[in-house]
Amino acid sequence: MRSLSPLFVFLLLYLATSVIARDFYKVPITVAFLVSSIYAFCTLKGSVNKRVGVFAKGAGNSAMVLMLLIFILAGAFAECAKSVGAVDATVNAVLRFLPGSLILPGIFLASCFISLSIGTSCGTIAALTPVAVGIAAHEGISMPLMVGLVVGGTYFGDNLSFISDTTIIATQTQGCKMSDKFKVNVKIVAPVAVLMLFVYYLLGKDGHTGHVTEDVDYLKVLPYVVVVVSAVCGLNVLIVLIIGMVLTGLIGMYEGVFDMFGWFASINNGILGMSELIVVTILAGGMLSVIRHNGGVNYIISKLTRRINGKRGAEATIASLVCLINLCTANNTVAIITAGPIAKDIADKYGVDKRRSASILDTASCFMQGVLPYGAQTLIAASLSGLNPLDLIPYLYYPVAIGIALVFSIIYRYPRNVSA
Considering the entire predicted model, what is its pTM? Predict the structure, then answer.
């Protein structure tokens, strides 16, 4: 148990103090990881140089460096696309021609597509919630329902996007390609998304007027389309993000949104915007390396797998582990960073396909994050709409549905090609 003490220090500092303060974002997560990492460093035996070596082995291995490069490029692309007006253009492109009966499924579809394109649930909520609130007020639609479907839809992209940090971390920790994980993951959640579209159509079929938006600059939608299509086709994610970043720069300069120096500033702002995630990833990698060195990972695996009988039990254990950590940290990215290496060991031991374990990590974390009233996504949406976070929970249909779909996927062994 001593080997796991750095993890307990992190949870105590981050979770316990947040409960006392009644604010799960009162303690900066970077500070929590810094303190727990310093404690982990102190638990090691040997010289300072030896301890640094153990910590650096996890913080700076090749997979970690690749992950950080992806974060940097993803942040740069996302900020460039925002600066050029691609988010607004994408919102308007989806909403422009919606008839009244399709407002609910249309907003849900917009939330799914935008989050898939930009790779961030929080960014999508910030962009789409004000639009959804305005439509709800104009059409007399339940505000919690409208905002809830926006929040729910963002987890579709958070779960599947090639530039989502959860997808990046899940695939990198499990050692599989994003395109391969996408093909497995989409078979589990796509039917749920289709079902939600039908449910929202039934709920909103009596609507009569559409929401008129401003003219759409379709050229600004192009970077998102190129990123999604090229990523689905299997192009290396680093190349995909560079292409998207360059394309937004060319479009921005062509349309006079910014000059070359303005583009450079957007790239810089995007990189700086990823700084917290980069720091957390480095510290978490080092801390987990110490835990692994001290035998903590083997201890966890032995306890969690004590009653595992085959792949089904291993998959359920991986899902339970990431859900538990997510519940404690209220951050699905941190949950996957923490659980990923352990999940990889469990998957290797019981022959779980790495595409499958990556899919389970991402889907289970999105489910848990989606039903937490103190999750960042719900808090942002509540703040923008003036609602209480608890008002939204009963309307978060999609996260609950993908959690149920994942359970059925584990029990009934599908997709078959990775569950045999």
Answer: 0.72
Helix (H) or strand (E) holding 244, with range, is helix 237-254
Q: For the segment 195-221, what is each residue's pLDDT rounded down to a tens digit? A: 999 999 998 877 655 455 567 788 988
| 192 vs 360: CA distance, rounded Å | 15
CA atoms within 13 A on the CB side of 412: 9
Distance from C-alpha of 415 to C-alpha of 419, rounded to nearest angstrom = 6
Cα distance between residue 329 and residue 13, in whole Å: 10
In whole angstroms, what is the distance from residue 323 CA to residue 350 CA? 20
The beta strands (E) that lie in 114-224 are given as none
Q: Is the pLDDT of residue 232 over 60?
A: yes
Query: Which of 158, 115, 165 is closest to 278 using CA atoms?
Result: 165
The verdict on whether omega for the bond into residue 415 sits within 30 degrees of 0, i.e. cis, is yes
pLDDT tens, residue by residue, 361-389: 999 999 999 998 877 788 788 878 888 88
Per residue in 38-76, pLDDT (tens digit) is: 999 999 988 999 999 999 988 887 767 877 888 888 888
C-alpha 82/C-alpha 151 separation (Å) is: 19
Handedness of CA 150, 156, 159, 162 (dihedral sign): negative
